[in-house]
Amino acid sequence: MSLSLDDIEELIESNIEDAEAEVTRARGKHDDDHLAATVVSPAFEGESLVNQHQLVYDALGDHMTTDIHALELSTYTPEEYEEHAQ
């Protein structure tokens, strides 16, 4: 895989307003192209889960077909993430 986890986080954070992204290897998966991402952004406010995930896929662009083969996504608004973290 030509992108590092930091590269992927940077792509998400630079393409989604005020986003905080954490990208890790998917649990239990040993191949590099199965990843998990948690993304928190006020841009998700009022968006459906499908639209939230689409924003992340759009942020990653062509990398979703070339470098990343599977991405487990968790998306939250800052308020949702605060509640989730408690």
What's the helix and strand layout?
Elements: H1 5-15, E1 20-25, E2 34-40, H2 49-60, H3 63-66, E3 70-76, H4 78-85
Parallel strand pairs: 2-3
Antiparallel strand pairs: 1-2
InterPro entries: BolA, BolA-like_sf, BolA/IbaG_stress_morph_reg
Family: Belongs to the BolA/IbaG family.
Organism: Halospeciosus flavus
Describe it for me?
The protein is α+β, with helices and mostly antiparallel strands and 86 residues long. It is built from 4 helices and 3 strands. The chain has helices spanning 5-15, 49-60, 63-66, 78-85; strands at residues 20-25, 34-40, 70-76. A hairpin with an 8-residue loop joins strand 1 (20-25) and strand 2 (34-40). The termini are far apart.
- Low-confidence spans: none
- The class by helix and strand makeup works out as alpha+beta
The helix content is 40-55%
Q: List SSEs in N-to-C order.
A: HEEHHEH
By DSSP, the count of extended strands is 3
Strand order of the largest sheet: 1-2-3
Strand content: 15-25%
Q: Can you give the mean pLDDT?
A: 91
Gap between N and C termini: 35 Å
Summarize it.
With 86 residues, this protein is an alpha+beta fold. It has 4 helices and 3 strands; from the N terminus they run αββααβα.
List keywords for this structure.
86 residues, alpha+beta, three-stranded mixed β-sheet, 4 helices
